Amino acid sequence: MDIVRNDSDDLLSELLRPLRLTGVFDSRWRVRAPWAIEGDAERSVAVLHYVVEGVCWISGTDQPAQRLLAGDLAVFPTGAAHRLSDHPERQGVPLRAVLPERQPGTSGEIDIDGEGPESRLLCAGLHYDSSAATDLYRALPWVLVLDRSQVDREPLLRDTLRLLASPDRPTGPGDRLITLRAFEMALVLALRPLLRDFTENPAVLPVLRHPGISRAMVTIATRFAEPWTIESLAREVGMSRSAFTAAFRELVGEAPARHLTGRRMQEAARLLCETTLPQSAVPQRVGYQSAVGFHLAFRKWFGKTPGEYRSHAATLA
Length: 317
Hints:
Pfam families: Cupin_6, HTH_18
Number of strands: 11
Protein name: AraC family transcriptional regulator
Oligomer: single chain
Keywords: DNA-binding, Transcription, Transcription regulation
Organism: Streptomyces tamarix
Domain HTH araC/xylS-type: 214-312
Strand content: 15-25%
């Protein structure tokens, strides 16, 4: 039986594919009412809150408060500032006051005693490579929420969260890397059903409802090494150059040429960091016929030469 995939499904896959975490700080919270904690905006960090037990409210600047129950999961894809509390109107203390050190690769605990009901949460700051975050990713809503029934429909997500939330989760050699990859998987598993729902709500991500621009983004994501021009991309999706450029800017938030460059740079960075491919072979693999042109584009994009980028990545490994 043939499986038919539409452009929206492919686009969601390509939106998720670049999400590679570079580090995680996670913490377990045991809090008894009254309590409230304010988290600052985080740059290049997705934030995850999983309610293990009890209830909590999440609220943000000019955003309505939302109530989370046990088994619910909230993801802040771009690390928007927000408050967690036992009551939506309660003023909180800054997170940095209760967890002053939150370095990637470490863990922490918050324990707040009170006279009210107890809640337990798993919270994490998921650091990602900002160069891999497209404008489409950055356009995601400030918070995405999966209720318990939605989490339960993703057994791998549910079981991963429960394991990560357990105070007795296994430790040993490679624990830091295992934790990083487990949270990375949890993030992708959480975003997948939410992003799929967006195809039915074009007001959230209108690009998913535009067949030409959706197809163009999939083409850029998967065939970036081909010698595209704006004209040839427009022809590929059956649009005029002017209509294509205008629609792409409006829906994606950047020009198609910059989006193509970003995808090529993302793949170049991956090849430099994750493979032993000779540096001289990278330009052609990502669509550049000129090594000089690639070098200049890479340095402009990352602020480092390809060689400096690879050396820096090796020191962090």
